[in-house]
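Chapter summary example.
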Amino acid sequence: VDKDEEKIQNIANLVTYAVQADVTDINALKSIGLKNVDAVVVSITSDINSSIMGIVNAQELGISEIYGKANNAQHEKVLLKLGVKKVFSPERDMGERVAHNLFSGDFIDILELDTNHSIVEVESLHIWEGKTLEQLNLREKHGLNVIAIRTLDVLNASPLASDTIRAGDKLIVMGENRSINEINKLSRKDH
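The structure predicted for these 191 residues follows.
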């Protein structure tokens, strides 16, 4: 749903149903049958009033799963107060991800689980080579869970305690960011 006819025409072939309507007009939303959908994503960031009215109207239509997009912290706070299930802030999230990758240097990629925990791919240390995961005992020593091992382009997504680390392996680990950063510092010194 968008009030801009051109945007509707551009996306019409990519979605099941595209319709021109003003989300601030509850009668327009009723006429297009919006109350029959399972979930709504309100991604208006250029006009906060329209964003709010779109969410309020979706609630009035009885839609229980409502997601929103915010362009700043205040907008996000308002959407959460309205009862939006989850707020997306792509620009902020990408900025944080880029900053984290720049700060962390050797991380190949990152998935933040919360503010203190992440899943990342790190380069194995030379001192780990030839040792099994059991011998390394990364969970006990560093609080890291190894959830996969990448050897060249082959991913072992179910590593066993008996799997041996080889030169050039990358480990996909989950743990506290503090512990991940400690390993990252060791890795920079090691390589």
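To summarize the output: Residues 10 and 95 are 28 Å apart (CA to CA).
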